[in-house]
Model the fold of this input.
Amino acid sequence: MQKLGRLHRGQDTSIKLYYTPGAGSLASRIVACEAGLQIDYDKVDLKNQTTASGCSFSKINPKGGVPALSLNNGEVLTEASVVVQFLADQAPHAQLILWRAPWTGTGSRNGSIS
Ligand SMILES: N[C@@H](CCC(=O)N[C@@H](CS)C(=O)NCC(=O)O)C(=O)O
Done:
């Protein structure tokens, strides 16, 4: 798997967040903003499964839901919990999530991300 570099304000990137106003993608947009990440955004019409840039959203995320995050290695992340943690991990200086978070399933890890 290609190693992903960290994204900081001003860095050129092709990472794109697919979102719909008022939907479950809002948390991802907030985290990207709070982290100071410069990413691209593409608004999704959920009913028609099209994006503002003219793409077929169901080809990007066959599950059809937002958020979806396309990475610059071609991978697409889905599920709000995954997208939010990925974005927060790109900007440890913002301290949105504990850096070197404790092991999965432990109370301290759950505390660090709740
Ligand atoms: N389990 C997904 C749910 C995503 C989801 O269903 N989002 C809604 C909007 S809040 C959606 O896109 N619905 C349209 C559809 O699934 O066609 C997540 O946590 O991200």
